[in-house]
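From the methods appendix. Each design record in this collection lists the tokenized structure first, followed by the designed amino acid sequence. Records were kept in a plain field format so they could be parsed without special tools. The example shown here is representative of the layout used throughout.

RECORD:
FOLD TOKENS (409 positions):
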């Protein structure tokens, strides 16, 4: 590890590895630091198709195509009564390769991205935790304090510090910039099964979102390689985790209330213990400062339902990298330069946030809405693909907003 870098990236998840790969490729000396030993376990296995363009930019498409990750060509919704929607096949809307994506085992996927950053020229260290981000008297980030595996602490100078620490959101927490979303105080319990029943054919790789009968919770069903399926339950934190006993007990109770899932698990066997996450939705009130910028979950996280997290992580990583590269060239690493992409990003991400609100409005039926507004099927598929940065991206809300307020009044 050198004592000074152009760019220091904290966190070796999809956001950090994307940023580091691109800044290193552009010739900036780049250090990528990850506190865990890679490969490390992580939730969030279902990708959004629009991640395709970031894979292309990174030069990773062939690695993805040749991997054993399950292909995802569709998503499907199952109601509380077990009624299945027709799958949303992305390629029926757009036949190009970019309309498909993958379901990834995150330990393997993140490790691949981390190694890719090294191949592009970044100095990468796992098992190495950042203990502090250092600021000068003008509140400009000037580097990081790093704890190595042998517990020694070393200060590293940086012209830019990128916070890609995920839900730790190191800088936002340190500077008091993190705001919980009171409307999305959710929790999740998830585990993995072998032999869960999948649809035959292409839809076998679909992410399936299943409501429970009470509609108090929903399950994700994400098919992975080796016939393993990730199956997780999401609901209000208060409902799921307060006073109901162990995660296993709560999970089994919700499973018993989810007819769509029971049929799929008849011959399945659980392969892991239960994992729990809670209150993962938040925003940040400032995304960049002089010499620092936030990417990925450190920037904010909406909700798992539409599988936008990893795409957003990689996309913000790409956008931040471009701002850093440009800023280095013009010797301008101000807050404005490093965060110049964030307003446009927020304008697109807002559509996913609005779609999340629609799903959690139990009085509203999406199926019924689409029957009356068939012309929005394509707009909805675009949002599920992640095409949120076009002028038309929010068109569905011209009719959806009035229908939603009618249902809730
Ligand atoms: C219940 C749940 C289900 C989800 N399902 C999906 C899904 O199906 N699809 C999807 O796209 N997204 C999903 N997500 C979201 C997804 O997990 C995240 O959006 C994604 O992992 C963000 O990537 P990241 O690189 O920003 O952060 P992370 O992947 O969390 O990476 C951050 C890294 O920083 C490291 N780090 C933290 N602090 C330090 C430090 N001080 N020093 C050094 N390293 C540090 C961490 O160890 C970690 O490896 C889900 C999230 C939740 C909570």
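DESIGN:
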């Amino acid at each position: 590890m050198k004592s000074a870098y152009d760019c220091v990236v904290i966190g070796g998840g999809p956001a950090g590895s994307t940023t580091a790969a691109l800044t290193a490729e552009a010739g900036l000396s780049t250090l990528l630091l990850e506190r865990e030993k890679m490969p490390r376990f992580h939730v969030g296995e279902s990708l959004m198709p629009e991640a395709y363009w970031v894979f292309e930019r990174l030069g990773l498409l062939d690695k993805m195509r040749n991997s054993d990750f399950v292909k995802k060509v569709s998503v499907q919704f199952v109601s509380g009564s077990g009624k299945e929607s027709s799958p949303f096949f992305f390629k029926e809307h757009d036949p190009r390769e970019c309309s498909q994506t993958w379901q990834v085992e995150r330990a393997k996927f993140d490790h691949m991205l981390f190694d890719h950053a090294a191949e592009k020229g970044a100095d990468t260290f796992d098992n190495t935790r950042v203990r502090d981000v250092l600021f000068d008297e003008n509140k400009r980030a000037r580097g990081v304090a790093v704890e190595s595996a042998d517990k020694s602490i070393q200060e590293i100078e940086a012209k830019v510090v990128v916070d890609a620490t995920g839900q730790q959101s190191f800088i936002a927490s340190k500077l008091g910039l993190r705001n919980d979303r009171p409307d999305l105080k959710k929790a999740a319990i998830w585990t993995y099964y072998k032999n869960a029943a999948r649809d035959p054919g292409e839809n076998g790789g679909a992410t399936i979102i299943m409501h429970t009968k009470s509609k108090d919770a929903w399950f994700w069903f994400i098919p992975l390689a080796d016939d393993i399926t990730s199956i997780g339950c999401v609901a209000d934190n208060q409902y799921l985790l307060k006073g109901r006993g162990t995660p296993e007990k709560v999970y089994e109770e919700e499973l018993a209330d989810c007819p769509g899932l029971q049929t799929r698990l008849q011959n399945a066997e659980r392969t892991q213990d239960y994992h729990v996450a809670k209150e993962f939705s938040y925003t940040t009130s400032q995304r960049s400062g002089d010499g620092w910028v936030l990417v990925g979950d450190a920037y904010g996280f909406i909700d798992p339902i539409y599988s936008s997290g990893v795409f957003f992580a990689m996309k913000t990583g790409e956008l931040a990298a471009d701002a850093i590269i440009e800023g280095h060239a013009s010797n301008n690493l101000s807050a404005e330069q490093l965060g110049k992409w964030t307003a446009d990003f927020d304008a697109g991400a807002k559509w996913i946030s609005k779609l999340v609100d629609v799903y959690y409005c139990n009085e509203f039926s999406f199926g019924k809405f689409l029957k009356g507004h068939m012309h929005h099927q394509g707009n909805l598929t675009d949002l599920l693909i992640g095409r949120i940065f076009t002028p038309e991206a929010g068109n569905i809300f011209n009719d959806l907003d009035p229908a939603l307020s009618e249902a809730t009044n």
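APPENDIX NOTE: The first helix runs from residue 14 to 25.
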